[in-house]
Amino acid sequence: MTRRGILVRRPISNNLLAALPGADYERIAPALEVVPLELRRVLHKPGEPITHVYFPTGGFCSILTVLDDGGMV
Predict the structure, then answer these.
(1) Looking at residue 9, what is its pLDDT?
(2) CA angle 34, 39, 44 (to 5 degrees)
(3) N or C: which end of the chain has fewer CB within 10 A?
(4) Cα–Cα distances in angstroms (integers) from residue 59 to residues 4, 30, 38, 40, 53, in the given order
């Protein structure tokens, strides 16, 4: 976003996004959207194409692997 020819960045609460150079962040910013995630939501299933990239701003995400016997770690 610019104000009187000066680039103004909104506060970014994700450390990875905040570390991007300003021009890189501004290039992807129009595609970013806040998505509330509920507990136990599956973000990606194995074997499916990746359609979204998530940049958490709080809480945590975990990676699970299904074992041959059906158990998960």
Answers:
(1) 57
(2) 70
(3) C
(4) 37, 24, 11, 12, 16
